[in-house]
Amino acid sequence: MLIVEDLHVSVGPTAVLKGVNLTVPTGQVHAIMGPNGSGKSTLSYVLAGRPGYTVTQGKVTYEGQDLLALAPEERARSGLFLGFQYPVEIPGVNNVYLLKAALNAQRKQRGLQEVDAFEFLGLVREKMKLMQMPETFLSRGVNEGFSGGEKKRNEILQMLVLEPRLAILDETDSGLDIDALKVVAAGVNSLRSPNRSFVLVTHYQRLLDHIVPDQVHVLAGGRILRSGDHTLAHELERRGYDWVISEAA
Amino acid sequence: MSSPLLTRIAAEHAAALAVQPAGSPTLAHRRSALQRLLARGLPTGRDENWRYANLRALEKANFLPATAVAAADLSLPAPIEGFARLVFIDGQFAPQLSAGAEALESATVSRLLGELPTEDQAFALLNEAFATDGADIRVAPGTAPVDIEVLFCSSSPLAAYPRLNVQLAPRARLRLIERHVGSAGAAQFINSAVRIAAAEGASCSHYRLQECGPAATWTDTLRAVIARDAAYHLHLLHLGALSARSSIDIELAGPAARTRIDTVSLADGQQVHDTMVVVDHKAAHTRTDENFRGIAGGRARIAFNGLIIVRDTAQHADSAQSLKGLIAGSDAEIDLRPQLEIHTDEVRCSHGATTGKLDEAMLFYLLTRGIEPEVAQRLLKWAFITDVVAHIDVPALRTHVQRSLASHMQDAQSLEELLS
Questions:
Q1: Chain A residue nearest residue B416, CA to CA
Q2: How high is the ipTM of this complex?
Q3: What is the model's pTM?
């Protein structure tokens, strides 16, 4: 699904990623953990195509194509989804309008007809129930006046409606209380399938109690220093990141 | 402003008066208005409050007004349901295109053929000197608000001098739509004058749409005097004209008088839109809410100058200004000036003015959802003005305005869903 090879990325004059290698096979959930400032969010943004991040070396292959050659909207339409760490508020753009426009953009890409309005609302309502979001959210501006937890739920709602092939969730767990965390995890788990992959970027192991990953990677200082199965997350929780960094040095 | 311009105005004025019947009751005040104008002169770019207006457009203007109603093959915008309609073509009343005013229960509508009292404002005097027709609207209190649409349509290359005199009796309620539309080709000069007086407890919602033709030069002078407990809500939309300048004075004359001014200006290409709003708080507990949203594309220039004066007689006055500009063209310019002049201590005044480009984070967010960059940009422009447009509380008019805005943003189709 996703192959990242020797990826070097700079933001302005600063090198942030210094040779990341990562392979996420189809159907798997990979967690990327690491201390603050390790480059986790940079990796998420680069995969989604955010301007301002310069790839100086390396390549990224997504479903056999050169991901870095695609514009952000093309990546999205070919099934890549980024769940933002800080979802943006867009007052004046209706939540339901965005959902529908996003879904139709993907359907168009796949040569499908626009979604039927009635069917669409049914789908959205069902997913909102799962995310325990009141229907009034639909008519509001995108993330406008939402609490931190509501914004994260809204990200997962979008993911559920769009059914991406590869979902990158950037610290979706940060700022969530334990109940909201369970709701978000249930949303993610409901979408796990042999055809779909996830990259969960997280700071804590907490989320991984609810979404058990196939692999855990430690990103620090712009490189992946260690990879292992889900038990690595527990070890990190117990021992912190320093031992990984000193062992890798 | 050069005196050759005034000389030309005087000559065209003489030509205009020459075709009036001798002894016409309007001649005296029109002559007097011209004299006052010649004495005070026209504003120039050196005047602080006029530096953003495109006064040079006047050099090319033809001041001579049309005198006869022109062709009947004009395509007028659809009427707004439930509103009486008065139509003026090139400043002249067109009874055959108007309907419903006679049936109004609580309002009397007549032609304004005589004098419209003016302060010493240059363009109001210019209107007074040349105008020959207009509408006089008197509103009495009633069970429901009075709904009137006045449509000013310019079709000839000659000048037009629209004018309105609106008086609301105590507790009268009026919803007034004032629209200015024009044909595409003609480089008309349109100079409008409007006076509004709202007596105690009256309420007036005034929807002004400037949708003149793309070559037109538009100037207007609006003066409103709001008495105790009365409310005046002005919605101003600048969409058309090559050069447009609005000079608006609102006097909050009685205690607890309040006003709300929601302005949207969309300019592209070489358009220049300049709006100056002065609100004068003269009494206690008066309140102003002022919102401006402007989007300038191409090489367009947009200016909004909002001056709020709080007199020493206006204790506990309250005002809030929110002025926002969005620069959408590489050579576009937006100038926002919130100004406060406060002569008493017991006031609460807040103001904010920001001008910037489209928010990159918002744009990226939309792109990651698969939205095309062009659509994302239009969506964000739309989002930028939509909260101000949402205050238009006549649904049919709001829909019209939304569609009109969408088509100005060349996005009628993809925004259609948003509007339904």
A1: A97
A2: 0.96
A3: 0.85
